[in-house]
Amino acid sequence: MKSSIIRSVVLSFCFASAGILAQEQATEKVDLIVEDKDSEQPASSNQETVKANKEQPEDAYAYVEEKARNYISEKRRKFSSQNKQVFIHSGTAVIRLKPTEAGWADARVLAYTEAQQKAREKLLKQLYTSVASETIRKSFKTNKLPQFTPSEIENQSKLEALLSKVVALADATIDSQLEELGVNPSEYNAAPPSKRKNMMQKAITQSVSTSSRGDITGSQIMKSFEKTDVNGNTAVTVVIATSNKKKNFLASLRKSKGNIEPSPEKAKLSIEDYLEKHRSNLMYQIGTKMHWDEKGYPVILSFGMSGNDCNISDYEECVDNREFSYLDAELNAWAHISEAYNLVGSVDSASTTTSDKSRTATVTLTDDNTTETQEQTVAKIIKETSLTSRMASSVKGLTGVQEATRWSAKHPVTDREVNGVVLVWHPLAEQATRAFKANKNVKKKVPGGKVSFDPKSGESIEADDEDF
């Protein structure tokens, strides 16, 4: 009898679900004691990336993390020996799309952003952290089994007697219809009424939460690594660093209004020559970078990137998309400048871990109104972990920033198109802009001497240790 009731309910549900499915299918003057000795090195050259790709490790994520770990260890030992207080951290991320997918180039840019975010989170935690923790222990035991009341037993007997006559005639029909739907009627025999009760429990829960909020202005990317493994997974690592010297230097540039004297002894390549020399490697440069031009003026370069998700066989689509890709890259470069001058962040993380052991008793009412008892013991570990971080920047009245160049290139490993825009802040450009807006002339200054510089191929446009 109970079996027939359950089969009736299940059959009605199956028919309703089948109807819904059918419908869905149908509708379906500043401190300038800063020298960037390695400023001519590309962020990660084509040759370096292709060479690394040929190594074909099994785990790209572990590969770049190890690269970053070794690099940071070396730098920390060096800074410590020089009695310098430099904060240096790294972050790693995986490009979530496969190289064969159209949005891979944009996913690559976001992977660098994610890696940078993770490194900034570590910096925030080191500088500003509040911690709260709580541990709760619970123990419980009883020997009182769950019971059926006399009225529950009596009502169950009356209900069975009444319904047995109602469902008897439809029983065979229901079974045949369930079979037509591919459902075994015997699987839906009604289970006898039962009660469950927790007889014993031993549990302990530990909760930890941290909150970090503060200013991390002046943190810049010092190094980056990129790798694709044998399975086509690509991972990137970003190393950031900051110090009071770096932070104060950037602040002094921001407040200088371009009134900066050149330091001829620091002169390197002109901006145009530098960018042209490393044009094929600009896709590996992320964020902002200090550079000294041919006259010895400090210059801030900001590198923005964006992908082109067009069908590579459709020329017109690729050309049309490139215009928007350049715009996205320009905005990306503007963001880097803003973050160099003013950046605040927050990180909130929490973790809860529970160890629980419990014994449950199940009492079942049989057909002859007697009870059967079964007990089950279960031990389990439950973990919940969460993290939310936010980085925000805002700078008003930027003056003297202009586009230095834009570029378009194919990634040497995946052949996906990457586009970029390089913005540049130059003190003379800020002076000229302010003079133009005020309808005044700018006095020309005598150019400083030029120092020759023989760049070498490397993994990154590495910020010089003297910057910090």
TrEMBL record:
Ranges where the DUF6844 domain occurs: 160-254
UniProt keyword list: Signal
Listed Polar residues bias regions: 41-50
Organism phylogeny: Bacteria, Pseudomonadati, Pseudomonadota, Gammaproteobacteria, Alteromonadales
InterPro entries hit by this protein: DUF6844
UniProt region (Disordered), positions on chain: 37-57, 444-468
Protein name: DUF6844 domain-containing protein
Organism: Alteromonas hispanica
Residues making up the signal peptide according to the UniProt record: 1-22
